Amino acid sequence: MNAMEHVTTPPWAMLAYLISGVLFILALRGLSSPSTSRAGNRYGMIGMTIAVLTTLVTHFPITGISYEGPSTAIEHGFQAVPDFGAFGLILAAIALGGGIGWVTARKIAMTDMPQLVAAFHSLVGLAAVLVGWAAYLNPQAFGIVEVVNDVTTALAQTGPEGTALPMQIHPQSLIEMSLGIAIGAITFSGSVIAFLKLAGKMSGAPIMLPARHAINIVLLLAIAFFIFGFFMSQSMVDIALITALSFIIGFLLIIPIGGADMPVVVSMLNSYSGWAAAAMGFTLHNTAMIITGALVGSSGAILSYIMCKAMNRSFVSVIAGGFGAAAESGGGAAKEQRPWKRGSAEDAAFLLKEAENVIIIPGYGMAVAQAQHVLREMADTLKKEGVNVKYAIHPVAGRMPGHMNVLLAEANVPYDEVFELEDINGEFAQADVAFIIGANDVVNPAAKTDKSSPIYGMPVFDVDKAKTVMFIKRSMSGVGYSGVDNDVFYMDQTMMLLADAKKMVEEIVKSLQH
Amino acid sequence: MDFISILSIFVMACFVGYYVVWSVTPALHTPLMAVTNAISSVIVVGALIAAAASGIGAGAGVSKWLGLGAVVLASINIFGGFAVTARMLAMYKKKERQTPAASAKREERA
Fold this sequence. Notes:
The complex is a heterodimer of chains A (514) and B (110). Chain A is an alpha/beta fold and 514 residues long. Chain A is built from 20 helices and eight strands. In chain A, β6, α19 and β7 form a beta-alpha-beta unit. The longest helix of chain A is centred in the middle third of the chain and has 28 residues. Chain A starts with 10 loop residues before the first helix and ends with a helix. With 110 residues, chain B is mainly alpha-helical. Chain B is flat and about 65 Å long. The interface between A and B is large, with 131 and 87 residues.
């Protein structure tokens, strides 16, 4: 493929990109344990620095286009004069973006992490769209122009005055470029919707359009058709349509998906942002981008898989959306009144103090109430009393993978007191108290017993085996996200603590200290 | 580089990604998303090329500004992504090891 070699990347630069790709692998590798993770993050930063510096050096802006006639190849026609103005502009762009990013990262509350991640995904998507368009408009800079050896053809292409006519882009690059733009645009608009839903700026409830599956399929086919058209014609109309339709489909794909399915959506968009970067890497023949794209793409895909499995739902059913919408209409239907027991903070404090083993199960409600700090305080008080406290985390608790872990870490809960579902589920039989705060569906035994339940087959905590269950909930009226009634409310050993999670735990702490 | 070499790198990297990501502990899945976010902004390489390019024709001028815009977006992500990951990872702490003296004291009291 000689066509690619007329704007060559020097060998040292290729090596540098490879090194940054390897450093990115090490960055993810470090996350296998909290103790190595900080070093991993530094590897990632070093890798990024190498990639950026390499590009800045090999692509220093030049100016002074003295065109010496069409007889020499185009790149020899330039007299390279460094353009410090343009370089300054680039540095300013980095400083501006870097400043915004850094300040945001410092200021953001840990509970807002899901929407921050969604917002960041949207930026990667939009950047991919912009880079794709830039490559389309100035293919020469990206080294993706077909080299025409025949001088007369070259002349014909550059036009009689040596200017203007669009250059022919390598056909393979056209495909890569249009895929990058399409995936980037889907990532962008999808992430914007995910962000709005997670930030509460838009209702988390699924929005169902009639015939939405048909619309989506038609749109996808249309995008595929225009990619083919773009491949044949290199026309701006085609690439504009690809961009516009991809923006629309990204939007349509995410609006029917409800709030608690967001862990899957956020992971999926994470994956898309990776594939978009990889597609651009193919266009640019850049190893760092390809390696990173593959890493991020598979990372997001694996996370989506883990989340789906933790809900016992297929990826297709999550993406098809609508889960939790039907429940709203069915939830109000004739519900039998069953007896349940209400406890007070004093009762709870008494039982907790007497307990030997307590397992705390946090859920999204804890994040909403910002109760993680006072919860840790309660655990500390209990530990001083000699109570053994552990935390149990369901993979889909919260709005993104690992959401609860971060919140507990923020509240200074040591990570070796926090356990995953399969590691702790056997311990409920020995637990004196299962303390449920802001979780619901993940402790619902219907998932184990009721085949007609929408959450049937989802792995849940065996809280019914604990001697006492304390269930913090705002009121008895609301049901979990799935809209299913929870038998745990009505068990003999269950004590319902009806209040705001944070207030209730504060009161328990107060009673414990007296 | 020809297409097959690039494709080989891509396929191999997918496998590496698969194994590396499965080894990530679930407790760190949120930092994983934040850091993958940061590194996928390596797309800044393409943005820098576009922003630095000089060229002839009207397209080149637009391309340059698109590149600069992409540099801003990717930089937000790079700095924001790594900073927020670092902030999260700094919070993950192990249980404080009790000094032998302290635990002996505790036993005495008990």
